[in-house]
Specification:
The chain is flat. The chain is built from four helices and no strands. It has helices at residues 2-22, 29-49, 55-78, 84-105. It is an all-alpha fold.
Length: 106
């Protein structure tokens, strides 16, 4: 269950990162409200998952989901560049997440 909670926390990190961009430096009300609500929920779920999972594992997976998710959203919705080097970097992050998950099982 801790892994599911952590995954949801990571998805909420993607949500708050996206809406933080949309808030234009917290100058737009609703994107700012969504950012703060998603941040609170994401941090809460992260802390719940840390009751069971090791700190390094939970935090690494949480930030990795957020980083790769924000990368994908940036490309799909914000027209950010999709260069081979950026894709390779995202793949390295994903590889690290898989290794971190596998190391937690042993």
């Amino acid at each position: 269950m801790a892994w599911i909670i952590l995954f949801i926390a990571g998805l909420l990190e993607v949500v708050w990162a996206y809406f933080m961009k949309q808030s234009a430096g917290f100058t737009r009300l609703w994107p700012s409200v969504i950012t703060l609500a998603a941040m609170g929920a994401s941090f809460t779920l992260l802390s719940w998952s840390m009751r069971v999972l090791p700190l390094g594992t939970a935090y690494t997976v949480w930030t990795g989901i957020g980083a790769v998710g924000a990368f994908v959203l940036g490309i799909v919705f914000l027209g950010e560049s999709m260069t081979p080097m950026r894709i390779a970097a995202a793949m390295l992050i994903l590889s690290g997440l898989v290794l971190m998950r596998l190391s937690a099982a042993s």
